[in-house]
Specification:
- By secondary structure, the protein is an alpha+beta fold.
- Helices cover 28% and strands 28% of the residues.
- A hairpin with a 2-residue loop joins strand 10 and strand 11.
Length: 359
């Protein structure tokens, strides 16, 4: 056996004081089968959660002082007589005793604040890809061909990010960069950067059981409210619910009571997200007003009055921000727009001859 809407973050000093859960012991069982692996864990007198992944699901075994006290599974549990299965063991206390114990794993992104990011559990199996090794478009195409269902993401110098796939279809993405939460295309831009640049982060690919995927999707698209299946996200992590019963706790450094989220009932009905088509670094580009653009901002001109009638006040507000010389990403923050939304405006204004890109 070998081991191998979103709350505002607190001030930096409060973030530093939070307790981050440790990473679990992880590896492959080697020549030992799942039953022998469990005996080894029990013989050590441990308390915690052993998770073993099979071809079609994950089995959780809750252990207290070297005794197996509860077993559960998500999707199809792996058989006990199969060798070399990936596993994780997460030591943790059972604060409510073995009778009311719930399996627990740490978060893959324990420092995150967005509920979906902090509720991604550190499950066994999956694959880690070094930064700069593969482009995101090629990776998603390959996962799509294989009908992959799970999460792709990571945490690095540019921020924390995850994308959720259902049957090979990219259906949700969320990220954090500094104090800002990103969704959909904006999050995918960050994921693209992580995958492509050598100073990005290790990309983690994790298959997820259906219950976890549905729960993460509910948090990613902000389906708040009570439901039998979903999650309760609060202090120290998230509790995944099935039929109203806690089935897994995901420990994180959270100190916020975020609330309840409903699982997505049918992920196949979610629309597919498209990767942004902007060139790399587009969000750092700046634009300037042309002479026509400056005339639009002069209320005394006929062009300004025609612009008001055909395009409106939103377009003028964007022109005023362009005039200030901000790069695209900063303009999006000032205007409270997603980059995809702002990009559509900039393309329209450029086509009208009102702005022009620098460089």
């Amino acid at each position: 056996m070998s081991a191998s809407d979103t709350p505002v973050p607190p001030e930096p000093d409060a973030r530093a004081r939070r307790t981050v859960p440790s990473r679990p012991l992880r590896g492959h069982a080697g020549p030992a089968d799942a039953a022998a692996l469990l005996r080894t864990i029990l013989a050590a007198g441990n308390t915690g959660t052993l998770a073993v992944r099979g071809p079609e699901g994950v089995r959780f075994t809750l252990v207290e002082d070297g005794t197996s006290v509860a077993r559960s599974a998500m999707d199809t549990a792996p058989p006990d007589d199969v060798a070399d299965l990936p596993f994780t063991f997460h030591p943790h206390v059972l604060p409510n005793g073995a009778l009311h114990g719930v399996p627990e794993l740490p978060s893959r992104l324990p420092d995150a604040y967005h509920p979906a990011l902090q509720s991604w559990p550190d499950l066994p199996g999956g694959e880690d890809l070094p930064a700069g090794r593969v482009g995101l478009a090629d990776l998603l195409h390959d996962l799509g061909r294989h009908g992959f269902s799970g999460v792709v993401g990571g945490d690095g110098p540019f921020g924390a990010v995850m994308a959720v796939l259902e049957g090979g279809r990219l259906v949700a993405s969320v990220a954090e960069r500094e104090d800002r939460t990103l969704h959909r295309g904006d999050a995918l831009r960050l994921l693209t950067r992580h995958a492509a640049e050598q100073d990005g982060c290790m990309m983690t690919i994790t298959p997820l059981p259906a219950l976890l995927r549905r729960g993460l999707l509910g948090m990613a698209i902000d389906l708040r409210g009570d439901a039998p299946d979903g999650a309760r996200v609060g202090e120290s992590g998230a509790v995944i619910l099935q039929g109203g019963v806690p089935v897994l706790r995901v420990a994180s450094a959270s100190r916020e009571r975020i609330g309840r989220f409903r699982a997505v009932s049918d992920p196949a009905k979610l629309p597919v997200l498209a990767l942004p088509e902007d060139p790399p670094g587009w969000e750092n580009r700046t634009y300037h007003l042309t002479l026509r653009g400056r005339d639009v901002l002069d209320p005394m001109t006929e062009l300004s009055m025609r612009f008001d009638a055909e395009i409106g006040a939103s377009g003028k507000r964007i022109l005023k921000v362009v005039r200030e010389g901000h790069p695209v990403a900063a303009m999006a923050e000032v205007l409270d727009l997603e980059l995809d939304q702002l990009g559509a405006w900039l393309r329209r204004l450029e086509a009208e001859g009102l702005i022009r890109g620098n460089g």
